[in-house]
Amino acid sequence: MRDLARLASGHRGVLSLAILLTLVASALGMLQPLLVRQAIDSAGHSSLPWHLLTGLVVLFAAQALADAVGLFLLERTGEGVVLGLRRRLIARLLRLRMRVYDEHRIGDLISRVSADTTVLREVTTQASVQLITGALTGIGTVVLMVWLDPFLFLVVISTVAVAAAVVGSLLGRLRAASERAQHSVGAMTADLERALGAIRTVRASRAEEREAQHVGSRARAAYAAGVQAARITSVMSPAVELALRGSLLLVLLIGGTRVARDATSLGELTAFLLYATYLVVPLASVLQGIGSVQRGMGALQRVQEAGALPVEDADGRARPAPAGNGAPVLELRDVRFGYGDRPVLRGVSLTVPPRAHVALVGRSGAGKSTVFSLVERFYEPGSGTILFRGEDIRELGRTDYRSRIALVDQNTPVLHGSLRENLCYTAPHAEEADLERVVRLVNLTELVDRLPSGLDSPVGERGNRLSGGECQRIAIARALLGRPSLLLLDEPTAHLDTVNEAALVRAIDRISEECALLVIAHRISTVCQADRIVVLDAGEVVAEGSHETLLESSSHYRGLVLGELAHNSPDNVEDSPGTGSRPSETGKLPKGNFAWMDLGPPPAQC
Ligand SMILES: Nc1ncnc2c1ncn2[C@@H]1O[C@H](COP(=O)(O)OP(=O)(O)OP(=O)(O)O)[C@@H](O)[C@H]1O
């Protein structure tokens, strides 16, 4: 109840008014049996007591009005509570620490904002008000019943106690079933999100049926838990009804006998009977409320779990990121990091001077993307320091710092919306001229001219109306529009044909005139362009220098160039990467672009 009260804390005023109105309605209802008793008892001695009957009609009308207004206020407050909860959760889910996304399923988090809050809507207002007003009016009715006939009250209360015992014994199971149902709905959403998010793979793998079965099994689990909850509720309700009807029968039997023996008046018995029936409503309210609260507890727990997930620290009084001051744009000093126990970066140091173009190369899994994640402050290093323009990035405001660097991931997504919205995502207020500049820079002019509505054409869900290469270039243009001091570019490996590759090389050349570049390079053409190449292996920098120097000095680099960077088939490369043997020593040369690497000094141009 305390947690529920906290949820509704911003709505206390309206909620109190709603409770007050419901109580007023109940009080007006409680007055009615007293008037009825008086009317019946006085009807025996005189003509029809019209004033009492008029009073009854007024009481009915006033009760209906108070009930209606109270109910509307409750419903509105319920919507308000859910709105506040959803907004808080949404804001939180978008700010969680990166590790949390690694550990949780996105669909399940979505389900907590949608399905769980909807369940809570019922609990927060209706159930809690049902409990409060039910309990208060119940107490009022009980007092009046005891005052009218203590003996008959004892008869009623003992049957009610039986019903309460039945309800009490079932509550734990009801709660467990509702928790299971909510978890299953979460798992179902997560699995559906997985399948729809990879619908092309699902189709190509002919896995529609398997996925339908799998997601369907989650739906069936939710159904089973829901049916279990329904079974429990369906035992609870008749138990309550039986007890209440039984108590009414007993009251009629005992009370009727006493009226026949003149031990009590007909008016007294009628009033008591009316109170007994009136007790049914608040009692049913209380029991229903307890049931709803139990059903809502599963949802509340899931919402609270999501609300307690750790978020990135707020910027607070952190310093703004420094502007150009001659210091290197980026510097990593002996940075160590692991996602779990296994170290992924083992003392990485590297420097990116202003306007420099640094390429990061290494085998798959060497830790290149991890370096980017640390620079973006998605994760914090275990030890070591990352400096931006000479200042420790931990001391800079995250938002401000991130506005100075731009990240283009291999799988940087294009978002649902128009081309313009996508391009302006990093810099929503960019000028039209700037937009045109970056469109030209990344060779997107032809695409914009071809699309029916130009920049305002929709790109489809995750950019599925565009080619992979176009999505990549949109991502680069988007990053550049923010005029970053440093661009982190994970070079696309698969999406570029030779024409686009050449365009990207030219674009990178132009970009490096605007800002510093740290590129995870997979293509020899972009590696050659770099002022400096940092070779990463198993989380360590094993070599550093220009392309020419590294070809001479680093067998690891030569292996990379021949093997992974060239994407040659193993048939073309007998020299396995990292063995140190020169291509010339193998007697067999890689074909195509790399024939020049065979003998003699490296050429001036790649
Ligand atoms: N979120 C994560 N949680 C746990 N381990 C991770 C995570 N991301 C990466 N790893 C592991 O860390 C290591 C380095 O990964 P990273 O993505 O940095 O390599 P990479 O050099 O960029 O590889 P590639 O060129 O294939 O993209 C890998 O062994 C990978 O399995």
Automatic annotation (TrEMBL):
UniProt xrefs under SUPFAM superfamilies: ABC transporter transmembrane region, P-loop containing nucleoside triphosphate hydrolases
Taxonomic path: Bacteria, Bacillati, Actinomycetota, Actinomycetes, Pseudonocardiales
Ranges for domain ABC transmembrane type-1: 17-295
Superkingdom of this protein's organism: Bacteria
Transmembrane segments: 53-74, 129-147, 153-172, 272-293
Its membrane topology: Multi-pass membrane protein
Subcellular location: Cell membrane
SMART domains, A to Z: AAA
Region (Disordered): 568-606
Keyword Metal-binding included in the entry's annotation: no
ABC transporter domain mapped to chain residues: 330-563
Family membership noted in the UniProt record: Belongs to the ABC transporter superfamily. Lipid exporter (TC 3.A.1.106) family.
CDD domains referenced in this protein's UniProt entry, alphabetically: ABC_6TM_LmrA_like
GO MF, one annotated term: ATP hydrolysis activity
Record bears the keyword Nucleotide-binding: yes
Cellular component terms per the entry's GO annotation: plasma membrane
Protein known as: ATP-binding cassette subfamily B protein/ATP-binding cassette subfamily C protein
Gene3D superfamilies in UniProt: ABC transporter type 1, transmembrane domain (1.20.1560.10), P-loop containing nucleotide triphosphate hydrolases (3.40.50.300)
Protein species of origin: Prauserella shujinwangii
One Pfam family it belongs to: ABC_membrane
